[in-house]
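Budget justification aside, the reviewers requested a transparent look at the raw inputs and outputs of the sequence design task funded under Objective 1. We therefore reproduce one unedited record. The lines immediately below are the structure tokens for a 130-residue chain.
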């Protein structure tokens, strides 16, 4: 098994442009459309040598095998919150989302987590060691 059990994730969206704007503002980074995807997939920032990456994918796109819709139940994706989660959390509501759980300390081994509702209705987590 690879060093990381997770290698890729699709975050379902119903409005690609709205979702791209939301995540670009919250993450402070570009979320470009993937070439050749006809606007159906947008890529999250990732280290080209990294082990984990992900994208925004239009919901109910059977050609991509994605037949889910945005929601608050099911698996939770956690984004890297950087050195201070509060910086990311402060961007959520102006971008059109809602903070569901503020920054909380989970112990020395884990660090800090928080949760927000994105512009599409997905429950998303952010994590930081400090």
């Amino acid at each position: 098994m690879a060093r990381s059990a997770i290698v890729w994730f699709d975050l379902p969206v119903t409005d690609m442009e709205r979702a791209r704007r939301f995540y670009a503002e919250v993450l402070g980074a570009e979320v470009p459309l993937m070439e050749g995807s006809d606007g159906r997939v947008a890529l999250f920032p990732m280290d080209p040598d990294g082990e984990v990456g992900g994208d925004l994918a239009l919901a109910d796109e059977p050609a991509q095998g994605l037949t889910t819709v945005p929601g608050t139940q099911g698996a939770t994706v956690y984004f890297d919150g950087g050195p201070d989660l509060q910086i990311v959390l402060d961007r959520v509501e102006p971008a059109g989302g809602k903070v569901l759980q503020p920054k909380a300390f989970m112990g020395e081994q884990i660090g800090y987590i928080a949760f927000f509702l994105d512009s599409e209705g997905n429950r998303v987590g952010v994590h930081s060691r400090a």
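The domain at 8-128 is CATH 3.10.180.10 (2,3-Dihydroxybiphenyl 1,2-Dioxygenase; domain 1). Helices lie at 16-27, 85-92. Computational costs for records of this kind are itemized in the attached budget.
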